[in-house]
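Work Package 3 (structural annotation) set out to generate three-dimensional models for the target panel prioritized at the project kickoff. During this period the team completed the workflow that converts sequence records into discrete structure tokens, so that structures can be stored uniformly alongside our sequence database. As a representative example, we reproduce one entry of 98 residues exactly as it appears in the project archive.
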Amino acid sequence: MSTPAVVPDVVEDIDLRAAPLEPWQVVVWNDPVNLMSYVVRVFRTYFGYSIDRATSLMLAVHHDGHAIVATGPRETMEVHAQAMHEYGLWATVRKAPQ
């Protein structure tokens, strides 16, 4: 028989609080393919944005080259970006600046 190993008492302070969820963003980028009216319709249909909000975001995409269309947990933003791809829009996910 072997002798059990002696393990010294270890006292560790363990912080069991959950880390805060860091926000992520879905960025939709301008492209030369999709009509502005189509982009507004996608934002209204998928995100449920009002006509004014969807139009404002579409104009930001058109004039600035991109717009942040959603912010939230990473997994959710990845789902949104994939949905934008399925609608034919170019979208990426990035960590929101702190």
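The mean pLDDT is 90.
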